C-alpha cells in the first residue's frame, strides 16, 4: 500500500463547489485523470464536493461506471458518530468521572496527593490519569478505562480533599462541557458500575476503529465483515433479555438508529466494500453471502446475486477499458471471450467461488 500527499493547502471556505475547484486544480497540476474512489467524512459539504467532482469526471469521460462507487464514506468517522450517539445516554456518570479527573489534573499538588492515595491502597502504577477530548469518543474510552484502574484511589482521595466533592457538586465547567451544571454530583458506586459497562462496551468499537484506521496496510477488504459484526452486536444487546440491562439497551438503540442511517440497507453502502471482501481469498462469496444473510435475513441470497451481477459489470468495464488501451481488434475479442468464460464460471460455480 502506498500513500502520497500531493497537496496540503488552505481553502477560503468549506462550500462544496469551492472545495471541488481546489481539488480539480490539484489534479490538473499533477496530470491525474484516473480517479477510482474518493474517501471523505460525512459533512454535507463533502457530499456536494463528491457529486460535483463526479459530474466533471463524467463530462471528461473518465468517470468509471458513471461514478457509482466513487463516493466512499469514512468508516472510522461513521463509527465515531455511532458511538457518540450512544454515549449521550450515560453522560452523567461519564461527566462525573471527567470532572473528577480534571479537578485532580488541574494542580500538581493534587496529582501528588492522588499518588500518595495510590500508595495507601497498595496500587503501584506508573500510569497517570488522562483527560479526554469530548469530540473524540476513543479518548473518552481511554479516560474511563484508566479511571477504572484507580476506582479505590478516588474514594481515598475524596476523603482527603473536600474540594473534590465541592467541585463536582457546585462548579460548572468553563469550557461548557458540563451539560448538567452544578447538579453533576459526587461519584457514586452506581456511577462506577455504569463506567465499567461503558468501557467494556466501547472496547469492541475501540479495537474495531484501530483495525479499520490502519495506514500501512489495506483495510477495505475487512470493512463489510466489520460492519456485520457491529450490526450483530447491537442487535444482540437490543433484543437480549438475559441481562435485562436498561442502560446498555438504550445505548445500543441510540447507536442502532445512527448505524441504520449509513449502513441500514445495502443501497446505502458503497458496493466496493462487497467486492473487496470477495477478492480477499480468505472470504470470497461465501463470507459475503453469509454476512448478508445475517444482516438482512431472507433478502440475503437476493442481495448476494446483486453483488455478483455488479462484479460482472465491473469486470466488463475493465474489459472495455483494456480493449481501448490496446487498440487491437484481436485483444478486444480475446478479452470479451475471457469475460464471457469468466461470467459463465461465476454463474455455474455458485457460492463455492
From TrEMBL:
Record flagged with keyword DNA-binding: yes
GO MF: DNA binding
InterPro entries registered for this protein in UniProt: hAT-like_transposase_RNase-H, RNaseH-like_sf, ZnF_BED_domain_contain
The keyword Oxidoreductase is assigned to this record: no
Comp. bias intervals (Low complexity): 329-353
UniProt cross-references to SUPFAM superfamilies, sorted A to Z: Ribonuclease H-like
Segments of this protein annotated with the region Disordered: 324-353
Keyword terms, alphabetized: DNA-binding
Every hAT-like transposase RNase-H fold domain range: 213-318
Entry protein name: hAT-like transposase RNase-H fold domain-containing protein
Native organism: Solanum stoloniferum
Lineage: Eukaryota, Viridiplantae, Streptophyta, Embryophyta, Tracheophyta
